[in-house]
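Journal club side-thread
Mid-discussion, someone asked how the predicted structure for our own chain would compare to the paper's figures. Pasting it here so we can look after the session.
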Amino acid sequence: MRISELDNYKDANPDHVRVITAPNIVSGVSVTGKLDSGFKDVLSKISDAHPGSPLASNHGKKSIKQVQTERAIRKWRSSE
């Protein structure tokens, strides 16, 4: 509706209220979704520098020994 038509419409229908809404978001944004290899390398370097961080648990490079050690620690802590 054009602005000139809107003015005529408001004059003809004074009981109607104009409501402006924000546009709908089609999809969310995900950091773990589609990442290019360069950004994956950056995340890997950050996780190597901070091995105890949540980022390291998602993107860090771990050896089999590290994975098995963490699994054993979690199992031991949950049994207490």
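Post-session note: The two ends are 68 Å apart (CA to CA).
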